[in-house]
Write a structure and sequence with these properties.
Oligomer: single chain
Number of helices: 14
Largest sheet: 4 strands, antiparallel
Helix content: 55-70%
Length: 563
Amino acid sequence: MAAPQNFVTVSRRPPDVEDYIDMLRRYRSWLIGPMFAGLVVSVVVAFLWPDTYVSTAVMRITPQQISDRLVPTVVNMQMQQRLQQMQQEILSRGSLNELILRPSLDLYRKDRARYPMEDIITDMRSKAIRIQTISTSGGSGGIASAFTISFSYPDRFKAQAVVRELVTKFTEQNVQVQRNQANLTSQFLGDELKASKDKMETLEQKLMAFKSQNMGRLPEQFQANVAQLNTYQMMVSQANEALSRLQQQKLQLETQLSNNNINMNYYNSILEDQVTVAGSTVQTRNEKINQLNQRIMTLQSDIAAMTEQLTPSNPAVRRAQASLNIYQKQLADAEREDLERQAAAPATGPTVKRVPNQQAAKAVQDINASNNVVKTEIQNLNLQMDEKVKQREELNRQIAQYQSRVEGSPQLEGQYVELSRELAMAKQSYEDLHKRSEISDTAKDLEDHKAGENLEVLDSASDPQAPSEPNRLQMAAMGTGMGLMLGVVLAGAKEMKNTALKNLKDVRAYTNLPVLSSIPLLENALLVRRKRRLLWLAWSSAIIFGSIAMSAAAYYYYFGHAT
């Protein structure tokens, strides 16, 4: 059995410039081959990649031409928000589907045969169409005053036509959105104004009905009702006083009538005097007694009338009473003297004879006339008293009515205040809506005249003369660079795998022995020539096939693709 061998691990020496030059010389085929392959592949891909033309249009946001302090706008969104809304509607599935299938455009004809329409619309929305805002100031907080609309498509004329259609859609959509919002706002405010007017009229009718049903009992008439109630109470008091005075007058007249009746009875009893005839002497009744009786009855009547109006302690009543006492005393003295005279008369055969009393008859006539006047006055007083009673009853009825109004006013005040408050709020709402409706109509006229915030085309859809992609030179350079990088990686990997000694430096470094001389590698000339022929054959074939591939791709791009 052979003895085991001991291997010593030796680290590689760091390469220098001559080593790198030797590596390039040794692995030049590994570097040039991938680089040429990358060039061929990138050129073929670049020429087979279809051209993409990008048409771009710029639209500007024009502010409202009339100051919003004079004519406020009714559009409830800023232009940036409206752009987003219009972009969603314009780039919707239905809108893009109609744009793709439009006969004048007929977009993505080949793709429609291979892919579903939904995928084509998604790619068109996310990749082909670009809508970007342009800010007036730097940073993310800039205000958008313009935006670009671009569309990429292999056909430059269709790309321009699509951008033109998108610009038209944005313009029409903006006008339609503003007009719809103005019309919707005007219609909404008109409906609200009509509803508010109907509500206000309904509340006015309810308030008028409430006033008509409670006329005179309204809270605003409370003070007038109280004043009228006090007036009627004073009138009742005055009527009672007048009725009391009429009753006193009537009582006086009745007392006077009663006294007159007493006097009439008295004078009726003395209408004929009895006279006694004795010889040639005739004795008549004492006339002084008759006069005293008449005065006494008159004073008694006067005193009775005065006591109805005055107190017994009144000086006039006391003087009349004193005169009555004097006349009564004189009457008693006269009757006593008359009795004494009749007793002293001679007792001869008297003869009794009746003689008419003229004074008593005249007194009876005067009393009858006075009674007639008194009765007439009493009738007038009765009529006046009846009128006063009716007036008092009417006043009491009015007092009761106003009293009920005054007492019922607090209960009605809540309902009246509520109706008045609702009517005031309805009027305020109607006035506000009326002002807003006028503003809305003015803003609608502003939109009709296109004087509001609008979109205008700053740059129309461009006609792209050159494709924006692919950049063939860049693709060829990138492919060549990637092939070179791949060759470097392959050469480096082969160099790391090859552990043989390549030159005298490796021999000195790894053996630590002096090198006396070197013998070059001796190969068969026939093998060397065959190897070179194979190498040139391989490179010639690769160059020829690569050139053919690149030429075919270029020919397809310039001639076959055009047909």
